[in-house]
Amino acid sequence: MIGSKIPRVDGIEKVTGEAKFTADLRFPGLLEAKVLRSPLPHATIEAIDASKAEALPGVVAVLTRDDLKAINPFYGNCFRDRPIVAIDRVRFIGEPVAVIAAEDGLVAEEALALVDVRYRELPLLSTVDDALAADAALLHEEFAGAGEFHDIAGLGGKPQPNVCHFEHYEKGDVARGFAEADEVVEETFEFPMVYQYAMEPHTGVARVSKEGITLWTSSAHPFLVRAELAHMFGLAQSRVEVIVPFVGGAYGSKSYFKIEPLIVAMARKTGGRPVRLAQSVPESMLTTRRHSARCRMRTGVKRDGTLVAREAEVVMDTGAYADNGPRVARRGVSRMIGPYKLAHCKVEVRAVYTNTAPAGSMRSIGGPQTIWALESHMDGIAERLKIDPLELRLRNLLDRGAELKTGATGIDADLREGTKIAASRVGWPGQKKFGRGVGISVGVSDSEAMPVSVALVRLLADGSVILIAGTTEVGQGARTVLCQIVAQELDIPIDAVIMRGTETSATPFDRSTGASRSTTVMGSAVRLAALDLRDQIQSAAAEALGVEPGQVKLCGGEAIAGGKHLSYGKIVSHFFGMPGGELIGRGYMRPGDGIGSQFPLFWETGMGGAEIEVDSETGQIALRRYVTVADVGKALNPAQAEGQDEGAAIQGLGHTFFESLQYEHCQPLNANLVDYRVPRFTDLPDYFDSALVENEDGPGPYGAKGMGESGIVATAPAVGNALARGTGVRIRELPLTPERVWRALKDNPRKGQ
């Protein structure tokens, strides 16, 4: 079962349309909600008059700031700095100001125009430089207080105004290191704002009654949502139920809390009637995004290629509210050090508030931004020293077990092995022909997944099995892999195991779905639960067969001992003395139990190799070949592992070639799928390959590691390095649009010919 290409257990439901997503659910008396959003990026709200909207036939309720006085209206996983709807002022275009609940969506839409809001505009913080200026206005004048699940030491320390979070790391003697260097290479790289684009925009349905809150939502963190809603609305968690139907993608956009508090607050005003809010893609583009970043790197090296010292500074645009910005900033530190031998280094990362849409989690938080800079910089060093870039990496890569960051888990992979695979499969060093080039990159990310998960496995009296685990199936194939683990340990067919979506009133706790923790952490909890149940089956079978438990063998859904066979269903019936009852296995994961308390739990390792051809007349880059390499420990389902890695690499093509959310004076210019381009099948390289490295050396079940994020980080630097090697032109700002490439070639006529 483990290591086999098992078809997805939910695949048929999805491709036939039987799967029900949140927007497909139907409820008696369902109301539709629409949100009035701020047209201004920064302004005080002087008055709100919703009387005309309330009087419109079909409107049931209107939510404004006046309805938030009896609750705690602020939420956030790192800082509780974001109000359900704007209270004193708005801080970005698209911020909710009022919500209309009506009998149908058209009426609610009409009513939005009847809400009169009077604003007074305030100075703008358009960019991080504006926000960091000495005379900049303060976007948040008071510290909002830490959220419940921040997990970050020193949260709230602000070295300067408008800095959401500051991370500092230093080891060795940086000044001495630079003094000992033969060469110093300094470069600055820029990474754009990017939208996560899940096919299903944020959607939720809420009902509030005297019993409490029931919320149906496409959330990847239902237990954290439950806790936050209980905190905000003054309820015990037992009175808040969060139900997760099928989810149409997430990529970090459905982490923590997005629209859930807004829906519940609206439902409090509707007299017990359920309310649905289904956002459009443009609305979701103004709800969350990836951080843009500017990364300055300065590295001292010996002439033989030995890295001696590094100084790095990263400034990230976290938008109007903190969201996951502090955690993203923290994760940037290890990526700027890089998986290389380096005795002296200093890294500073700032997440800065601006008047733009809040930035949160996206696949490999902080990874693509910083690894784009680091791996491009490595090629810049190689060029300065006239050393082959592959050779430079092989000389400096950390050995297995070496420490990247003080106190962190040692590197748990053979980095040279994966790097050599990537290089060989793109034909390194490539042809010496202008316009054609090959490039490589190494991506190593720290998972920092909190190892807290609980799982139950129930064996029913007919021999069927129910797996109850809080991992959200967002398209990554978690249900299939977790069912495989149960089937493996109980020696039953996978179709005898069923797993449904999360209902927090019945499903045991899981910290979250993200940080590539589903297979490693939840998978470990599921395996422990299955092993617990296996022990119970053996003991119950031994009792029924009159033998010792050690004499019982489980095979194909039966217990076998002394030539006698007893099905699992009959074992349950015999145990309870009736054709009913069930045996329940339990599995717990917590720091120090099986998966250690040291962070990261594992290093997520991925390499990329690209071969490109550029048209010097148009600047268009053709991706002829791309290879992605992932060190997965053990691929429990190779087909799904390859799909995850390839999907991540394709997503990386977006910010490499065309994706960029554009703002001008805090006005979003392309927050729609007409003007904002995401990858299509026509963007795939001519040759596309995925290589899985399996050494069964991970902390998860059967030696598995997480691998859902590694493929996205290597794409851009591999392509950028190939472009530089093929044309002599180094571009340090993404995306590599035809115009940007054409201008770079035009500005360097000697290199561009």
Structure overview:
Helix 16 crosses helix 18. The radius of gyration is 27 Å and the shape is globular. Helices cover 27% and strands 25% of the residues. The strands form 8 sheets. A 7-stranded mixed β-sheet has the order 3-7-1-14-11-12-13, with helices on both faces. The protein has 753 residues and is α+β, with helices and mostly antiparallel strands. It contains 19 helices and 30 strands.
Give the spatial strand order of the biggest sheet.
Answer: 3-7-1-14-11-12-13
Task: Classify the oligomer.
Answer: single chain
Number of strands: 30
Structural class per helix/strand content? alpha+beta
What global shape is seen? Answer: globular
Distance between the termini: 56 Å
Q: Kindly state the mean pLDDT as a whole number? A: 94
Biggest β-sheet: count, sense, barrel? 7 strands, mixed
Unreliable stretches, pLDDT < 50, 5 or more residues? none
Helix content: 25-40%
How large a portion of the residues is in β-strands, by DSSP E? 25-35%
Radius of gyration: 27 Å
Number of helices: 19
What does this entry show, briefly?
Strand 20, helix 13 (478-490) and strand 21 (497-499) form a beta-alpha-beta unit. 27% of the residues lie in helices and 25% in strands. It is of the alpha+beta class and 753 residues long.
